[in-house]
Each structure stands twice: as C-alpha cells, then as structure tokens.
UniProtKB/TrEMBL annotation:
NCBIfam families on file: poly_P_AMP_trns
InterPro entries listed in its UniProt record: P-loop_NTPase, PolyP_AMP_Tfrase, PPK2-related
GO terms of biological process kind: polyphosphate metabolic process
Source species of the chain: Pseudogemmatithrix spongiicola
Domain called Polyphosphate kinase-2-related: residue spans: 12-229, 268-486
Pfam families: PPK2 (PF03976)
Record-linked Gene3D superfamilies: P-loop containing nucleotide triphosphate hydrolases
Name recorded for this polypeptide: Polyphosphate:AMP phosphotransferase
UniProt GO molecular function: polyphosphate:AMP phosphotransferase activity
Length: 492
C-alpha cells in the first residue's frame, strides 16, 4: 500500500497557488454545508516522522472555519488518561454534530510503536488491529465519516527531512531513534494499513516528499469527504423509527420468568447481613483504591423496582471521595450531537475510583428500541457495540457489575399506588411510568434479548429478585463484593 505513495510527485509554486485558489473556497463551502447537515467528519493525520504532519494540521485549520474544527494532538499520556481504558482519550475528543475533528496521532500510534519495539507480542498485534477495525466501523455506523491520511516518506527522503528539521531546531526527541528502525517501521505500518483499510474507513497514503503536493492532495481528499458527508441526511436522533426490518434473532426461554420472586429476607436477617456486606465493601473499595482497580456499577430495572434505594445502600458503605453516581435521563443537546456511547465513556472512572450508573447504555436496546427512538438497524447493532465497550472496561482491569432489578407487575402496581398516596414519594411517579406499564410485553421482550445477548462470562448481568427490597439490596451488595474480590485477585 505504501508503494502507491512513493512517486516523488511535486508541484510548482504556480500550480500550487492555482489549485489552491479553487480548493480553499470549495473547502469552506463544503464545511458550511457539513455544519448544516449535522454530520461529523474525523480526520486522522498519521505517517512517517518528519513527513510534515504538524504542518499539514496547521494548514487544514487555516483553510477551514475555525469555529467548526477541533484539533487534538495525541502524544504523551496524562495520568488521567493512563488510568482509563486506551480509547477513553479518543472518545473524549470526538467531534460533535456538524463538526470536524482533526487528530494528530491516533489509536494507531501506540500499537505500531509497541510492535516495532517488540513491547507488544506479534500474536497480540492483529487482534488489536481487529479491535480498531470494529471501533472505526462503530464510528462510521454512528454517522462519523473517518478520513485517514498516511503521510509517507522514503528512507532517503526521511533522512534528508530529519537533517533539515535538526538544522532548524524542530527535530522530535524520538525522530532519529525511529529512523534507525525505518525498515521495521515500514513493515509494521504496512501490515497495520493493509489490515485496517476497510470500505467504511479506507487509508489514503500520501507522498509527503513535496510540501505542495502533500497539501493539495490532502485538501482534495478532505473536500471529497466533506461533500459526501454533507449530502447525506443527518441522523434523526430520538426521532420515531421507521417500520421494523427483518432480524435473525430467535428468542429463547425467558430469563425473567425463571427468577424466583418469592425470595424474602426477614428483618433480623437483613439487619444482620446488610452491615456485614457494607463493611466488606468498604474495605474492598479502599483496597481497590490502593491497587488502582476501577469499579463500574450499572443499574437497570423496571420502574419502581428500587434502583435508587439499592444504590443508596451501596453508597452508604463507601467514602464519598471514592465514588460518583451518574443519573442517566434523556440526552442533552450536547449528548445528542455525539455517538450514543460518548456520554458514558466520559464518565468512565479513573483507576481506583467507582462510578455508579443509574440507568445506562442499555437504554439503546430498551427505551430507544421500544419507543421507536432508534431504527431497528441501530439498536440491533448496539448489542455488538455494547459488548465491545464492556470488553474494554474489563480488559483494563475494571470490576464491572451489571444489575437488572426484576419485580412482578403486581408488585409494580402496588408501588405505583403507594407513590401516588405518599406525599414525599409523589415526585417519583409520572405519566410516563403509567404509559410504560402499558408496554410491559414489549419491554419484557427487549429485556430478555438484552440479558441473552449482553451477558458474556466476563461481564454477566445479575438478575435481582426485587419483590422484596431487603432481599434485593443484600443480593446486590453480595454480588458487588464478589465481583470486586475477583477483579482484585485477577490484578494481583
């Protein structure tokens, strides 16, 4: 693939200026059209050391409307980034609707360098590239157009360029060290490019020997990307979905029907077990803090199932400095302008901290599915996207606990009426709760599919018997303790 870029193409100053006079207004026009369309474009600028990646980033910013561009350079990792999964730093910088994001460096940098230096094993390299392919496919499916530019220099051209940069005092700290491994960098980079050159995110190798040719080529590629993106219909976020499409999912036995809702704890049992589990959780939380193990707790369940009261029994055991509760409601305008997983990635805790989600990313396959806020193709694809998200959390060493609190329709009706009757509970019951109750069969089908498809061995769902609140709280605390102990043992 890199051979295609080794052509030594050049442009004269006159030819460069002539093409630029046409390209600059066309780029601005396409950029304004993109802003109106609500689409997103992500430009990845990668390639050889000394190939002018930084210069090209400056030039693209010069040619575009600066109000609609966000440029992020990925180099050194901050402590905040090191204490989260690898893709966290990229999710945080994603462009919003109608915006262009320019990434100087990307998710390719670390895998390639690690493989060149052999700090990453060969057998781990291709699986990492597969994860990148899946990640870029998820971005593309979510409406983000990815333009990947690889600026290439031949070995003689790179040597000459590095000498020029050294003379100007602009040489990077690792440039000559990397040059000594030029052939290995080329081999590894070629493999990475070929493996990740996909229809949804193709690579565009650019001969970077001549600055003018490099800039004009990149401008033309960006113009084509912007024009294509702007012609597509903006994603209808939270609009009613079209008629259902055909699906291959075949329902199996209902997991909800197998839950024994008659399970109870006496008051004496509850008062004995609850403080014991809370004490164990408190000690484990401090140990996780010391050993830098993050914890993510995800709570879902029927309306009035007791999620809030269960979360309170968890937080009672924790020092306030260690945890954060994130309540998830309808997305804000800022969140609607992003991929749906963005608002959850931004709350992923640092190592040693705890984040508790009251409602979660599973809204995509529950509320958005049943209420028609997401097309069938989108929520059906979300099962795989959620699985990839959770695998990254677990691979990073996080203790992940996912809970569905299950109650019977009769118990839910009883709690609804109690909320209407008791003044200080009245704010908990809304017309939407009654409306959702009328859709229990549709929601039950969605929950059963969620439990079947989103409960792998490393990130299982715990279905909680919630008709008795005391039993539910103890079951949840016991599960959290077991999950955290397992994560701590795995990281030891």
């Amino acid at each position: 693939m890199l051979d295609a870029a080794e052509q030594g193409l050049t442009l004269t100053d006159r030819a460069y200026e002539r093409q630029l006079r046409t390209l600059r207004p066309a780029l601005l026009k396409a950029h304004f059209a993109l802003q109106q369309s609500g689409r997103q474009v992500l430009v990845i600028v990668s390639g050889s050391d000394g190939a002018g990646k930084g210069e090209l980033v400056h030039r693209l910013n010069e040619w575009l409307d600066p109000r609609g561009v966000t440029t992020t350079a990925f180099w050194d990792h901050s402590d905040e980034e090191d204490e989260r999964p690898h893709f966290y730093r990229f999710w945080r910088a994603m462009p919003g609707a109608g915006k262009i994001g320019i990434f100087f460096g990307s998710w390719y940098t670390r895998p390639i360098i690690d493989r060149v230096t052999k700090s990453r094993r060969k057998r781990d390299f291709v699986p990492e590239l597969d994860r990148i392919v899946a990640f870029e496919k998820m971005l593309a499916d979510g409406g983000i157009h990815v333009l990947k530019l690889w600026l290439h220099l031949s070995k003689p051209a790179q040597r000459q360029r590095l000498k020029e940069l050294e003379r100007l005092g602009r040489l990077g700290p690792d440039d000559w060290k990397h040059f000594k491994q030029y052939d290995r960098f080329r081999t590894v980079s070629e493999l990475a490019l070929e493996h990740t050159h996909q229809p949804h995110a193709p690579w565009h190798p650019v001969d970077a020997t001549d600055r003018r040719h490099r800039e004009i080529t990149a401008a033309k590629l960006l113009l084509a990307t912007l024009e294509h993106a702007a012609t597509l219909e903006a994603p209808k976020r939270r609009a009613r979905a079209a008629a259902p499409a055909a699906r291959t999912w075949v329902p199996g036995p209902s997991q909800l029907d197998q839950v024994d809702l008659t399970q109870r704890l006496t008051v004496s049992q509850y008062e004995r077990e609850l403080p014991q589990l809370q004490e164990r959780l408190s000690r484990l939380a401090w140990r996780a803090r010391e050993e830098k193990v993050p914890t993510i707790l995800a709570f879902e369940g029927w309306d009035a199932a007791g999620k809030g009261s269960a979360i309170r029994r968890v937080t009672q055991a924790l020092d306030p400095r260690l945890y954060r509760v994130v309540g998830i409601a309808a997305p804000t305008d800022e969140e609607r302008a992003q991929h749906y997983l963005w608002r959850f990635w931004r709350h992923v805790p640092r190592d040693g901290r705890i984040t508790i989600f009251d409602r979660t990313w599973y809204g995509r396959v529950l509320v958005e599915r049943v209420e028609g806020f997401a097309p069938v193709a989108d929520w059906d694809r979300a099962y795989f996207e959620i699985d990839a998200f959770e695998r990254q959390l677990v691979d990073h060493g996080a203790a992940l606990g996912k809970f569905w609190i299950h109650i019977s329709p009769a118990e839910q009706l009883k709690r609804f009426k109690e909320r209407q009757r008791v003044a200080w509970k009245r704010h908990k019951i809304t017309d939407e709760d009654w409306r959702n109750r009328k859709k229990l069969p549709a929601y039950k089908a969605a929950v059963d599919e969620m439990l079947a498809r989103c409960s792998p061995g490393e990130a299982p769902f715990t279905v909680v018997a919630g008709d008795d609140k005391r039993f539910a709280r103890v079951q949840i605390l016991r599960t959290i303790v077991e999950r955290l102990e397992g994560a701590l043992e795995a990281g030891a």
